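Researcher: I'm preparing a figure for a lab meeting and need a structural model of a single chain. I don't have an experimental structure, so a prediction will have to do for now. The sequence is pasted below. Please return the structure as tokens so I can convert it later.
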Amino acid sequence: MRRSILIFILLVISSKNMYSASLDCINSKTTIENMICSDGLLSEVDKQLNHENQDILNNLEMEEAEQIKYKQIELERKKWLIKRDQCRNIECVYEVYIELACEGNRIGSYRGAGECFVLKLNTLERYLNSIEEVYMKKILVQSENPDYLKSVAEDERIKWKQYRNSYCELVGQVTGGTDGWKGVWTVDCKVEETNKRIDWLKNNWH
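Model: Understood. Here is the structure written out token by token.
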């Protein structure tokens, strides 16, 4: 793995064995808490968003105007938490976190932009997997030699991902910026290419 991607992943993803988050994962009780704590990417982004929110609150001077701003920030966070806690599956949780992580003021930094695009990519790859399964079933039913077709399709699936990763690494490197931003452009490219594959597969259902 090239240096820019390695740096980027280290910034975004924590240990796979023990995830830290703003919520208490050791004593998590609700379904939504368990879903977040079981997903390394979600729990790491949750922690980062919580730290950013707390930093804003800590830096406010408690004059009258700042007290109003404090209440507004707390109100918006409570609304977001209510929306998150209404989710019943991991896909919904990702969508809610993407909404918050991709706010305009966050994606001005490569860390914020990176978390936004990684969440998007993770969501798209989950969707792509389900689309590929449906497409595979469709073409296998129509085949006179399903075992061979399945082998060919799996080979194409692997080679497409290799192509996407290599192509997007190049895009990231030539787009410019620091290593952190190169990693962001790489993931952004993967989001675009994954969307293209999803569209292609869906158009070939009929």
